[in-house]
TrEMBL record:
Cofactor: heme
Binding-site residues for heme, renumbered to this chain: 437
Cellular component, GO annotation: endoplasmic reticulum membrane
Annotated GO MF terms: heme binding; iron ion binding; monooxygenase activity; oxidoreductase activity, acting on paired donors, with incorporation or reduction of molecular oxygen
Protein name: Cytochrome P450 monooxygenase
Entry membrane topology: Peripheral membrane protein
Location within or outside the cell: Endoplasmic reticulum membrane; Microsome membrane
Gene3D superfamilies given in the database record: Cytochrome P450
Membrane-traversing stretches: 6-22
Organism per entry: Phyllotreta striolata (Striped flea beetle)
Matches recorded under PANTHER family: CYTOCHROME P450, CYTOCHROME P450 6G1-RELATED
Classification via Pfam families: p450 (PF00067)
């Protein structure tokens, strides 16, 4: 038994060496005189996200609040030091003024997948810039106005669905049907039949992409915070067969439109026009497939979340609901129906949507990769090339310094929305600067149409199953309620003459 002490010494030595290896960088921020969250071995500050007890967004909000008055602070994702920026002026530098030093996202870029690597969201420069320039004309206000009659038809189907299912309806699922039908019509040129078929293929695949599975939770976290894992195991953001279905469906719709020559005023027509202007030949089949997949993923969750969370807040705040309905009905009467200009003129609706996106930003954080050694203006801090920088939207948009009574749903705070981003940036639901969301106009229009479709015919009320407060699902990258958003839908009773 004389070998036992040797074994114990061996394991003790290995344990000590392992400990020193995994903690070797934990003095990184201390050496730079930067306030930082105390890390733990192996996990850094990332333990609750790894164990799926927290979403990335809610975790960053907690770190934001614990950093108090610091302009920025350090965190560790496992052993990697990352910087989280709180100060609005520094955020403006990162996203706008010094954009060239932070033009890439820190997310994995899926180079292994010929479709996913063409997602504008994941692209690096210079490919990102050239692709963005090609696609920007697709989302102009003039193009959206031309498509409005086609898109408003989906709102009418949404109304019919609600009318046929009065009572308790899960608003997130209903909004997801609306969002899926909208995207199918606008981007794929088809009716997805989500309102009349529970097994409609587009809706089934949409559920699969965003369900609360361990697989989805792990992969989405890996894309944003464990990029080397994505590269090593060639992880796809969603399952390959789903990517293939959407990509091939969009390519089929695109090629059919090219052959037929018809122009029903949708995004396929605009993409065809973009392809014709592609003089360097880079806008190939895989880029077209990538565009179709991105249109679905980006447009789906933005709209379904914004519509359902707006309805949720309105069911809890009947006075706001009634005021918004009055504006909607007055606009419809003034314009002899629902029109594009009428929607843009609904100021209170715009305020309500903005307040929803403050409380429930779809992606509750931004990330950037520092591309050069960067000295933060007015400080001694030099951010090293390769450092990941996070901007915690969920923390900023609940900071009472900028938004008094942040838990309160108060659209009136957006009477003057520009004030929040005058000197710095604190309200960022679509990002800001050159890498701001390219589909912001389309997403806002889509969300407004969804809310109008409901409130112009129905009222929403809290029911016994309505969560209050909401508990967010930790396995979801975006902010989703664990139990959905059930509420009661009732037909509006006309006032007596």
């Amino acid at each position: 038994m004389t070998w036992i002490p040797n074994i114990l010494v061996f394991f003790a030595t290995v344990s000590i060496l392992t400990y020193f290896y995994v903690t070797r960088r934990f003095n990184y921020w201390r050496k730079r005189n930067v306030f930082y969250q105390k890390p733990t071995p192996f996990f850094g500050n990332f333990k609750d996200v790894v164990l799926m007890k927290d979403t990335i967004g809610t975790w960053l909000r907690k770190t934001y609040e614990s950093a108090k008055s610091q302009p920025y602070y350090g965190i560790f994702i496992f052993d990697e030091p990352c910087l989280v920026v709180k100060d609005p002026k520094i955020i403006k530098n990162v996203l706008i003024k010094d954009f060239n030093s932070f033009s890439d996202r820190a997310t994995a870029n899926a180079e292994h997948n010929k479709v996913l690597r063409n997602f504008l969201f994941f692209m690096r420069n210079p490919e990102w810039k050239s692709t963005r320039n090609q696609m920007s004309p697709i989302f102009t206000s003039g193009k959206l106005k031309a498509m409005f009659p086609t898109l408003s038809e989906v709102g009418e189907r949404f109304q019919k669905y609600i009318g046929n299912n009065l009572g308790v309806i899960e608003a997130k699922e209903a909004s997801s049907k609306f969002s899926t039908d909208f995207i199918a019509k606008a981007f794929f040129g088809i009716n997805a039949h989500c309102f009349d078929d529970e097994n409609a293929i587009f809706r089934v695949l949409g559920r699969k992409v965003f369900d609360f599975s361990v697989r989805n939770g792990f992969v989405s976290t890996a894309y944003f915070c464990m990029q080397n894992v994505v590269k090593l195991f060639k992880l796809n953001f969603t399952e390959q067969w789903i990517i293939d279905y959407f990509a091939d469906s969009f390519l089929h719709a695109y090629e059919s439109r090219v052959q037929s020559g018809t122009r029903p005023n949708d995004f396929i027509d605009l993409l065809i026009d973009t392809k014709k202007k592609d003089f360097d030949g880079k806008f190939d089949i895989n880029m077209i497939k990538g565009a179709g997949m991105q249109f679905f993923l980006a447009g789906f969750e933005t709209t379904s979340s914004t519509v359902s969370y707006t309805l949720y807040e309105l069911c809890l705040n009947k006075n706001i609901q009634n005021k918004l309905r009055q504006e909607i009905l007055a606009s419809i009467k003034e314009h002899n129906g629902l029109t594009y200009d009428g929607v843009l003129g609904m100021k209170y609706l715009d305020m309500c949507i903005k307040e929803t996106l403050r409380k429930y930003p779809v992606l509750p954080f931004l990330d950037r990769k520092c591309l050069t050694d960067y000295k933060v203006p007015g400080t001694d801090l030099v951010v090293e090339k390769g450092t990941t920088v996070y901007i915690p939207l969920f923390g900023l948009q609940y900071d009472e310094k900028y938004f008094p009574e942040p838990e309160k749903y108060d659209p009136e705070r957006f009477l003057d929305a520009k004030k929040y981003n005058m000197d710095g940036l604190v309200y960022l639901p679509f990002g800001e600067g050159p890498r701001a969301c390219i589909g912001e106009r389309q997403g806002l229009l889509q969300s407004k149409l969804g809310v109008i479709s409901v409130l112009s015919k129905f009222e929403v009320e809290k029911c016994a199953q309505t969560p209050d407060p909401i508990e967010f699902e930790a396995k979801s990258l975006v902010l989703q309620s664990k139990v959905g958003l059930p509420m009661t839908f009732k037909l509006i009773v006309p006032s007596p003459a």
